[in-house]
Amino acid sequence: MTQVDILVLGAGPAGMAAATEARARGFSVLVLDENARPGGQVHRAVEQREAKDGQDRDGAKLAAAFRACGADYRPNATLWAVEPEGKVFWSEGGAARSARARRLILCAGATERPVPIPGWTLPGVMTVGAAQIALKTAGLLPEGKAWIAGQGPLLWLYANQVVAKGGRVEGIVDLSPPGGLARAAWHLPNALRAPEYLVKGLAWQQRIRNAGIPIRRATRLVAEGDGRLERIVIDGWSRSAELLLLHDGVVPNTQVTRAIPGCAHDWDAAQRCWKPRLDDWGNTTVEGVMVAGDSGGIGGARVAALAGRLAAIEAARALGKLTADQRNAEAGRIRLEWKRQRAPRRFLDALFPPLPEAAIADSTIVCRCEEVTAGKLRGAVALGCLGANQTKAFTRAGMGPCQGRICGPAVHGVIATARGVDPATVDPFRTRFPTKPLTLGELAALAAE
Ligand SMILES: Cc1cc2nc3c(=O)[nH]c(=O)nc-3n(C[C@H](O)[C@H](O)[C@H](O)COP(=O)(O)OP(=O)(O)OC[C@H]3O[C@@H](n4cnc5c(N)ncnc54)[C@H](O)[C@@H]3O)c2cc1C
Question: Which of 18, 109, 128, 372 has its CA at a distance of 20 to 30 angstroms from the CA of residue 121?
Fold first, then answer.
């Protein structure tokens, strides 16, 4: 079995920065990532494209330093289990493998929140994130009668990226509740510590307007069609459509941390999601397990990279290479910049609150794998179900191939609103290892190892 000092999950900004920092301190580092190349979500395929903006330049620099740092980087490697004392299992090249690490730094990133509207399971309806991956990896732009709908910074970023590449969409349906600026105004002074975020956001919106793309605020959206998307209905106003790209923000990917016994998670009321309980350095409530980046709470690419470095410096303290004072001194400037980059977060959370689950119609499918509707979930609550796991037993919601990875936040939200209680008191889906599907053949390879 492979033995290393530090195992890093994920080669996004957090993982790349953590690995590079740890290598610079002389640790042996193993990095697992399920994608073919480093970059994660934000810097996806950054090595394959010309760095045209600040974000791409950040990504190219991070990836180059990561490639050069000497970490044992395993692309196409999917982690599916973590056991006590730093034992980790993953699949790579059709075989399962294991390693033991003195410290784990988990940087699994974020996933998109589901957007259960009527008709969202029709062919022709997908997420903005998926469309952005097609754009970043293959330069694909939306074609035909394409609409973008929902809320959140990524929606505006993607629309801006489409326009910047000479693409076009029929329109944007803004489903965010009105009064965003009034809600966020309280947080503006703090957000201005990193004004570049607000300037960028305003520039995206201006570019979209200059391109003449209609933006329509709405409260209800329906996708319709016979066997595939044919039209969308925006507050009763029908428009023909061939492609609908939905987005409702991102949430921490907690699939792995929620499966680790004793790894506590807390409800974040502003971001309406569960996240692991972390100290200032990224230590979880399980000795030896750390988290950095968006899987520890949504902060964005630059915050993720800085958090990765802080976690690696703390790992050096925990593994006896630095005293606490030396750690604090070495991390001083990084932490200051981390705090500055995080400053706009509360402003953005208030400006872009997730869509209300209470508005999901009873007939709308929430769990796509098992085709469980919101009405069926509410029925289970009426029968006395209190949380996601009991509701899973009554309805099969979350029992399908995605194991609740996609529908989890929506199922949780529907139950909490149906019960009329604080979502923090409703348990989310329990996750168990293996958190990703694997074949018996892969497992058999482990015996040989
Ligand atoms: C679809 C999507 C698109 C986004 N696009 C942008 C954007 O364009 N600009 C922006 O500023 N922000 C974007 N974000 C926000 C993004 O989360 C952060 O900006 C940033 O990428 C977070 O960095 P990270 O290192 O924490 O995670 P990520 O960059 O997400 O990296 C995590 C990596 O871990 C891998 N991973 C996760 N679980 C496993 C596992 N079990 N086994 C192996 N590998 C695993 C993932 O595949 C990924 O490569 C996007 C988020 C999403 C969900």
Answer: 109
